[in-house]
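Final report, closing paragraph on structural work. Over the funding period we assembled a curated collection of sequence-structure pairs, and we close with a single example.
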Amino acid sequence: MLRNGKSSADANEAAASGADGRRLRSEVSRERIVGAMLALIGAGAVTPGAEAVAAKAGVGLRTVFRHFENMETLYQRIDTHITDEVRPLAEAPFKAREWKGKVLEMLARRARIFERIMPFKIAADVHRHQSPFLSAQTGWFVREQRVALLAILPPERHADAELVESLDLLLSFDCWRRLRKDQKLSAARAQQTLDQLIRAALKAKR
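Its predicted structure, as stored:
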C-alpha cells in the first residue's frame, strides 16, 4: 500500500490519466499551431516565425518551439488541411461529355485550386530540400497532375507525345505560378492565356 492509502492500481490509473491529459493538450496545441501556420502562410509568410505563430495560435513560445522540433508532423497536418479543402473540387465529376471539353473544364478547375494552394506550394518548395515529406509530396503532386490528365484523354491519344506533353505543361502548377508570379498576370488573365493556348493545341488535333 502507498502512504496515502491508494493502491498501486489507483496510482497507475492516475498516471495514465495524466499522460492522456498531456497528450490531449499537446494535440490541441498542435492543431492551434497548424491553424496559425495556415493563416500566416496563406497571407504570404513563406517561413512563419515562432513568435508570429505563438501570437496567432494563442500559445506560449516554448510550446511552439517544442512542436517546431517535429516540423514533419506540422507539414503533414498542413498538407492534410489543404488537401481536404480542395479535394471536392478536384474529384468532382466533369460536366463536359467529350474529352476536349473536359480538358478546358480541367483548366478552369485547376485555376481555382492553384490559386488556393499557391502560397502553401511556394512555401513547400522553399523547404522541401530539408523535408523528406515535402520532397515526396512534390514528386507526387507532379505525377498526379499528369495522371489526372491522362484519365480524361481517350486511350488512343496517350501515344500522342506532342499533345500529352503540351497539355501536361499548360495545365501544370508550375506554368500557372510563372504566369501569376513571374509574369505578373491576374488570375483571370492567366486563365484566359492558358485557355487560348490549350484551345490552339486541341484545334490542331482532329
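DSSP finds nine helices and no strands in the chain. The radius of gyration is 23 Å. We thank the funder for supporting this effort.
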